[in-house]
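Re: the request from the purification team.
They wanted to know what the chain is likely to look like in 3D before they choose a buffer screen. I agreed to run a prediction and write the result into the notebook, where they can find it.
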Amino acid sequence: MPRPPGHGPDYQVRRQKIIDTAAELFARQGYAATSVNDLGRAVGLAKGALYYYIGSKENLLIEIQSRVMSPLLSRAREIVALDTDPLVRLRLLSESLLTTIFHRLDHIWVYEHDYRSLTGDHLHTLLGQRAEFERLVRGLLTEAVEQGTFRAMPPRLATLQFLNLHNHTYQWAKPGGRWDAAQLSREYCDTLLRGFGAPGAVLPDVEEKAAAFKRERPDLPLDPEAEWRSEPPAA
């Protein structure tokens, strides 16, 4: 089937719908158990037409992973680069991660369960993305230790504590349910920051500073899929 020049907007919209449907099927049935025919029936396309949009089943898995990691990593880098206390940046990064989890539950499920089905360069790229996100978290934790706000602790272990508290949320989170990303981030970070705190250290009012950031910089949303305009409101 010939492809239209440049793959216009209709092609991209249909392709993204296929990717999202694949994420739902893979999360419900498992990547290995879901056939291309299953996906074709779900989106109303024959196998040949489906391959026109996705290339291969493994490519679908790559696209699902990218839908999560590409915007999340981009937003994480921007948050880490902010000129504010490392604890505040940890709090903002926490909410950004949880926002992704709430928005992309099926994608996160596939990301956590099926990434090992990738091979070669694709697996190497994904593992590199995961490692970079961990480095960004570890860097903020290390900053807090160096400034005396956090007690001395193994950076790798502290990073794993942060990630473990957040990453399993997809298993029970319900969009529109009792808690949203901001509420969970507040509770998670209160637990983590107090637990990591150095004896006698006075922790900054992280919640007030995070609330001020969101109030004063609506041009810098925490949702990784929203654009950062980097234009502060006029005084």
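For the purification team: Residues 120-146 form the longest helix (27 residues).
Please add any questions underneath this entry.
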